[in-house]
Design brief:
Chain lengths: 363, 381
């Protein structure tokens, strides 16, 4: 396989990657990203009032969906897509026809690395996705496939080929992704630490996945990237990406794929209002005490050999075990099933590679 | 009063210091009470002259008590510069403490374990003698000792991954989505540092990439998640001896074990044991900073001419340790080590006599630790 470090990744994946952006305000931030994003196709998911016109800067190739479009395309199944919350972005994943997705928030800008150079976040995500992951044994020098690094002494050779990377989770300089209580206690804290590492999150370990700067192999893991029921009419917000992350990690662990975290950094410019956040999050803060043990103990049967089967199985277990925490989880479990149905309708399995793996894949 | 009762432990000392009273500080200075850290320095067969090593580390090491253990196979006299507070142990000393038949386990790189055995301090820091202080990205000299102590004295978070790495470091915290009940963390028992310049690669890798040098300074410390194993290198580590001491042990010796790090696996084996024990006892293991600067040494290709057992070994060792489950009854480190040893004997001992010897060495070590290593200087700690 060619070394991704030597081929210009932008040329490679120009026609294989969509950039999904949820927005409610405007897309001015795209100006700063223009040198990096312009070759790619954008899928803009407009949240909020559909009668408002969102202006897209000149020169970008895009498709834009508002709530009316979502309702028209999905019909009754549109109930699974959140309204008045950036969780609606997952609609973009569903309608995309590309192999890879990069999603970014509209208050995220180009960051600079310690040498002062602009960071091409998309390029780094592509490198992460195109090189293997190593979830079964931790490499102390982090990503062994990066230039200048390798596997350390003691790393078994049989594990050095790695596994396919399904998710690349990027980080943020400036405004860190804190929850509301932490924001209230430390309103002035800024993340100034550039940690020059990419690493695989080990198998069996969960993490809080942030959707602000995220890329994934849609053909591999797309159906698991459902961002849940948030926003208008829902008791909770700001847990959309968390939910998708926990489901995704459980499924990746089961199917033997990797999740990376670390570089690239983007510059997160807008600190959301912590009091508003607290109102959205507060149920999540105590629900997550139940959710984490739930996800840590989920086991998927061997015959769950596709992402859809795994996801449907998780939905079943959500209903069975979390329904008693709050009725919200019954609704969420139903929405998860609706999502998979909608996904399969829009992505009939001749076209996509989301196909069954041989049984040997689960460990 | 506390001193006279023999009840001055590190924890009690911290309480006194926390009062912020001047009389406390001057009393501490007058009595020359040391912070309870002991850098342990094993020597290598090729390096009897420790002068440049110790001078490079002087500003960082001179505050602490040093234990220097001379490889019993090293024939030349050690050259050690003046001005350090240290104890030196050579073959006669080792023989005296553990007996001549047992002292053979401390040859080569394993001589450092003798230092761990005889130390009576709470924390141990161990650095190979081909490593010098490194500089960080701003060009400032890294105080590896201070960083290891920080790692060991702040909680670890093995049950959920924090994407901003160590949440207890300045300028960072737990991210959104991190459960609050897991934010107090657990005690950190082991701190694994890294290396700039010559990274800890095995011989095949080093031979394939003879020019490769690690120049990437990753400004992070992170907790290695529970049940995740990793190769724990002995080149630059620190640990809480009181909590995990018996689990760092000399036991696996390769048939062709040699004078260069890439001709050994003893630390990797020991590290697997330590991680399994920590996971079982709910203790944390951190990895990342501090970095040391590791000097070029040896010819990897020459090492490859020997049959490279270490490579084949890990294919067995890793799945084995990944499958080890300790019993509920194993509640102390010694018990855990003994249980691991028995499982090694049962499951790996039949595959290769080297494992059977390792298992026996582990059980012997637990006995040795109980008789020689376990009396601490702080009663009621």
């Amino acid at each position: 396989m060619a070394d991704p470090a030597t081929i210009s990744p932008a040329t490679l994946l120009k026609d294989e990657l969509d950039i999904v952006i949820p927005t409610i305000r405007n897309l001015d931030f795209l100006e700063m990203w223009r040198p990096f994003f312009q070759p790619y196709h954008l899928i803009i998911v407009q949240d909020g009032d559909p009668s408002k016109a969102i202006k897209v800067p000149e020169g970008f190739d895009y498709e834009l969906y508002n709530r009316n479009d979502i309702n028209r395309i999905l019909g009754p199944k549109a109930s699974c897509i959140s309204f008045k919350d950036s969780a609606c972005r997952c609609f973009g994943y569903m309608v995309s026809k590309k192999k890879y997705i990069y999603t970014i928030d509209d208050d995220c800008f180009v960051a600079k690395d310690p040498s002062g150079k602009d960071i091409n976040a998309l390029e780094q995500h592509i490198k992460n996705l195109l090189s293997p992951s190593t979830p079964f044994f931790f490499n102390t020098l982090y990503d062994p496939y990066r230039a200048g690094a390798d596997f350390v002494r003691g790393y078994p050779f049989s594990l050095r080929e790695g596994v396919p990377t399904a998710v690349s989770h990027g980080l943020w300089l400036n405004i860190p992704d804190y929850d509301a209580p932490t924001q209230l206690v430390k309103p002035l804290e800024r993340n100034t630490r550039y940690v020059d590492a990419v690493m695989t999150i080990p198998k069996g370990t969960l993490f809080p996945m942030c959707g602000m700067n995220l890329a994934f192999d849609r053909e591999l893991i797309g159906p698991a990237m459902y961002f849940g029921l948030m926003g208008d009419g829902q008791p909770i917000g700001r847990y959309d990406d968390m939910w998708a992350g926990w489901c995704t990690k459980v499924i990746c662990d089961h199917l033997g794929w990797g999740v990376k975290t670390g570089l690239p950094y983007i510059w997160h410019s807008k600190a959301s209002n912590p009091f508003v956040n607290l109102r959205k999050e507060y149920k999540g803060i105590y629900w997550q005490e139940e959710l984490i043990p739930f996800f840590q103990s989920v086991t998927l049967p061997k015959d769950c050999t596709s992402v859809q089967k795994c996801y449907t199985e998780i939905a079943k277990q959500v209903k069975a075990k979390l329904g008693k925490v709050d009725d919200y989880f019954n609704k969420l479990a139903d929405a998860m099933v609706t999502w998979i149905e909608a996904w399969d309708e829009l992505n009939p399995s001749g076209a996509s590679k989301s196909s069954d793996l041989p049984n040997g894949a689960s460990k | 009063r506390t001193l006279r009762a023999g009840k001055l432990t590190e924890r009690v000392l911290k309480l006194f210091i926390a009062t912020g009273k001047d009389e406390v500080f001057s009393l501490i200075q007058a009595l020359n009470i040391q912070v309870t850290v002991t850098p342990v320095l094993p020597t290598r067969a090729l390096r009897p002259d420790l002068t440049s090593f110790m001078n490079e580390w002087r500003t960082i090491f001179s505050r602490f008590h040093l234990i220097i253990v001379k490889d019993p196979d090293l024939k030349e006299e050690l050259k050690i510069p003046e001005g350090f507070n240290l104890d030196v142990y050579k073959k006669p000393d080792i023989d005296r403490v553990v007996g001549t038949s047992t002292s053979t386990i401390f040859s080569g790189y394993s001589c450092r374990y003798f230092g761990y055995l005889v130390s009576r301090k709470k924390y141990i820091i161990s650095v190979d003698d081909d490593c010098y202080p490194a500089k960080d990205n701003k060009g400032i000299l890294v105080d590896a000792v201070a960083q290891h102590i920080t790692n060991l004295t702040t909680p670890a978070t093995p049950f959920f991954f924090n994407t901003l790495y160590d949440p207890f470091t300045e300028g960072a915290d737990f991210v959104r989505g991190y459960p609050f009940s897991l934010r107090s963390g657990v005690q950190c028992a082991l701190s694994c540092g890294l290396w700039l310049n010559l990274a800890d690669y095995d011989a095949p890798t080093q031979a394939l990439k003879p020019e490769e040098r690690n120049s990437r300074y990753v400004d992070a410390v992170l907790t290695v998640p529970a049940r995740t194993l990793m190769p724990i290198s002995g080149i630059n580590i620190a640990f809480n001896r009181e909590v995990i001491g018996p689990a760092l042990l000399p036991s696996l010796r390769l048939g062709g074990e040699g004078k260069f790090r890439w001709e050994t696996m003893e630390d990797i084996w020991s590290g697997m044991c330590v991680k399994v024990v920590c996971d079982h006892l709910g203790l944390g293991v951190k990895t990342g900073m501090p970095y040391v600067w590791r000097n070029d040494r040896g010819d990897a290709i020459a090492s490859l001419r020997k049959e490279w057992e270490g490579v084949k070994l890990m294919e067995e060792v890793v799945p084995f340790f990944q499958s080890v489950r300790l019993s509920r009854e194993a509640t102390t480190t010694e018990d855990c080590v003994a249980e691991v040893a028995n499982v090694v004997k049962e499951q790996l001992g039949t595959k290769d006599p080297m494992f059977a010897r390792a298992a026996k060495a582990m059980l012997d070590w637990v006995k040795l630790w109980k008789s020689v290593g376990s009396s601490t200087s702080s009663p009621g700690a």
